[in-house]
Amino acid sequence: MLNESSARARLEENGQDHVLRFWGELSQTDRDTLIAQIETIDFRLMNRLIHQWVTSPPPEERFKRIDPVPVIPQGGGEDAQTAWQAGEEALRQGRVGLLLVAGGQGTRLGFDGPKGAYPIGPITGNSIFCYHAAKIRNLQSRYDCVLPWYIMVSEANHATTKEFFREQDYFGLNPKDVTFFQQRMVPCVDEQGKFMLEQPGKLAMNPNGHGGVIPAAMDNGISADTQNRGIDTLSYFQVDNWAVKVVDPLFIGYHVMRNGQMSSKNHRKRRPREPVGVHCICDGVYRVIEYTVLDMYPQLLETDSEGNLIHFAGNPAIHILDVGFIDSLNANYDNFPWWRAHKKIPYIDEKGERVKPDEPNGYKFETFVFDALRFITHEPIALEIAREAEYTPIKSREGDNSVAAARESMRNLWGGWLEKAGVPVSRDADGKVAVDIEISPLFALDEQEFLERAKGREYDATSGLAIGPEGDVETG
Ligand code: UTP
């Protein structure tokens, strides 16, 4: 443990000793907190990031050649059945675990609590975590296996996330198979590259991005735990995707059959400028190009003679990671790319007053999980998905990628299942399902299961319907 003088020396060496400006006024608890924060800082990394991104930013990266990533079509290619069987086999053998990233700050959603606790079910109020857990339980009984669930959280939501699971009895999962682990934090810096204070005795820090799952898996013994359990394949997803197939046998199958290191799903972009990253091969290397730099690469906006986008492969942030590949990334983690985001960061000024800026005033540094793709040495494995049934990211309350849009997407999906089963469903003049609908993933994970289990049951969805785990009708 650092003491005051060693902390001071470390800060001085790195030109950051201003953060002890209020030392004389701090309580012992605040001093301890500050020292503990300083102890976690990787100064070598921070100096590199400040040099690279703040004091002498490099010229923007430019690619000479960008090719579309080869994509396996929706539902799989000619070998779809073989892939499906290989995926099911891997599940039955207990080779598969789940890796969820839930450490984000969720600023756009503005929900008081971990994002996964958001009551997304429009009728039941069931949380996003509850939905993910119900899918896991269904799959565990379908494949007679245990799917250990590794959940990455961050300093700000570790305790609240764990508490939420405890309160909800782990949604019926075995607590031994649910592991929470914390990602690292990095200091925010101002436009001169100086660390910022959030309180007189506390540095402003942010979680190190979803790419932080790579070092966090090593720091917290996740990779060792998977090996002890005989797991070599991790299905990666993000907490805010309500529709996600937490495990997809077809995707797993392609990954294991082709000896994948990191595989990706992708969805067709709705329009050339849709704000999602695009999967591409850039100068021979697998990359995801962020929408913020689309204008640098006008070829990404081009369409073919039939008006279809050539680079259509949007990034829904659904992957499979081989455990050995995570270990190899960690062994070379110094080469993992970092990015900066220019943000409005509240801070304590020199007089000790808290300032809430109106304009961006500093940088947060982050890593992105998709940057791991550039390190694969095998052929890329990319599978196209239907958006409605798999991708409904919940970033905000209204508009694109919102709670409202996710609910609309899910009621259209589930409304379609109900109609196939002969159940009347109200639709509006545009043909969209007009009422709230929920179907518990414990009752049915997909249309086929729903049609089988709904046989002989009477439902009516003309004024909204929630079907519970046993097929019973639920109310709020
Ligand atoms: P987003 O980039 O959408 O960020 O995260 P967010 O934190 O949820 O929301 P905003 O941007 O503050 O509004 C995508 C996924 O990555 C996880 C999030 O929890 C979400 O599942 N994530 C993000 C982390 O686990 N750690 C991070 O540091 C950042």
Description:
The protein is α+β, with helices and mostly antiparallel strands and 476 residues long. The chain has three domains: 4-40, no CATH class; 66-390, Spore Coat Polysaccharide Biosynthesis Protein SpsA, Chain A; 403-467, no CATH class. 28% of the residues lie in helices and 18% in strands. It is built from twelve helices and 23 strands. The protein has helices spanning 4-13, 28-40, 43-55, 80-92, 128-143, 158-167, 213-219, 222-229, 249-257, 323-331, 403-420, 447-454; strands at residues 66-68, 96-101, 149-153, 178-182, 185-187, 189-190, 197-199, 202-203, 205-207, 233-238, 262-268, 278-282, 285-289, 313-314, 319-322, 339-343, 347-348, 354-355, 362-366, 382-385, 437-439, 465-467, 473-474. Strands 2, 3, 4, 10, 11, 14, 15 and 20 form an eight-stranded mixed β-sheet that branches. Helix 4 (80-92) crosses helix 9 (249-257) and helix 7 packs across helix 10 (323-331). The longest helix is centred in the C-terminal third of the chain and has 18 residues, at 403-420. The termini are far apart. The mean pLDDT is 96. Uridine 5'-triphosphate (UTP) binds at residues 101-108, 115, 152, 154, 183, 207-210, 212, 238-240, 395.
